[in-house]
């Protein structure tokens, strides 16, 4: 079944929610998110791309989440809870959330859940009062009740999982007591009763996330801005999905992975990348009609207009690494489900579109399956200037069904790339971009992308602001200093707006 949703010629901006300005130490779905939508719309761009929105685990990477379905509690805007009458402003106004330039995840973690618990206490009181007044409940109670019922297929397990995480002092589910680690009937009943109030709290947080995100997305769509979401191909081992659906993954009798996911040595790392994610049991998934994937993609289609599948290559052919190996050099490739899974994905998402992140190892099988499904591939201009004239990332080698980026969240910023590499490394870039002025090279990369035949051109906010590598979002294979960058309020001024509107206009990408 071919995906029919081809992307028309257009442009977009990549900005993760965490990078938005806000008073709460991290970006939220509040006022500045709406202002960013206004900027994208006024720049005559069609798309706002975000990174994965799931709740993050240790290390704060949006690509390692506790759930394939849940949203990040950090993004729930506290001022909107105040406007809804369930949170007193005094509770959060004097909290030290950290500086404005980078996310201090420790401060956010230590304070946010205390504040959200206060909101839940007040909300629960409102629900209690509504039940007294009307047996059927007031409209707000009905909305919350309907949300819980509609999303029970993932929400019940997720809320119990998070309540258990806090009960067991954040230990991985593999270190929980055996009755609940193995989800025995007695253990499940015991903890559902013991942690009933905390389970309710986690459901409330997801209700608020869903309500605020969908309101923001509706505003974007009304202003002719579509949302590109991003989903990691794999789940983290310490996630509600692996715990609740262990049979869908390649685990031994003790629920421990035998082989794990990653990628072989490449330009990013000579040791490769051992991600450590458990691998899917594709045979079992196929036998049940890819039930989990069908639900995941249908849920993603509710949240986004376009879905970028990270590490799309893994659906066609995936890299396996023995779990006891220290790095990724000893791995091997195995065949993935390919078109069988993509038929399910195409059906589940309806008229929504897919972007396939096919970076890394070039596999002919992937090229074929992209063409057969009409999925656009990805090109990155930072990968284009090594001197090979057949490099697929050079604009004159593009087909129109591709998405071109200056750089992604995993790359240096463009300004960092052009200022921190030496003249020998940049020799071909000087020639191709027709300048040796490193400041102008960033502008010329924009023009190379926007003028290309690619159906969609996307640049990060950091590159629009011409920031150096101090604004880099992530450095693969490193730990401790990633996912922290935040934009300063007022950075996207009229000069930036006019520059982006000009590019969209001149190169036929206006929305």
TrEMBL record:
Keywords: Carbohydrate metabolism, Glycosyltransferase, Transferase
Catalytic activity: Transfers a segment of a (1->4)-alpha-D-glucan to a new position in an acceptor, which may be glucose or a (1->4)-alpha-D-glucan
Organism: Lachnospira hominis (ex Liu et al. 2021)
Similarity-based family: Belongs to the disproportionating enzyme family.
PANTHER family: 4-ALPHA-GLUCANOTRANSFERASE DPE1, CHLOROPLASTIC/AMYLOPLASTIC, 4-ALPHA-GLUCANOTRANSFERASE DPE1, CHLOROPLASTIC_AMYLOPLASTIC
Superkingdom of origin: Bacteria
GO molecular function: 4-alpha-glucanotransferase activity
Pfam families in the cross-refs: Glyco_hydro_77
Source organism phylogeny: Bacteria, Bacillati, Bacillota, Clostridia, Lachnospirales
Official protein name in the record: 4-alpha-glucanotransferase
Transferase as UniProt keyword: yes
Enzyme Commission numbers on file: 2.4.1.25
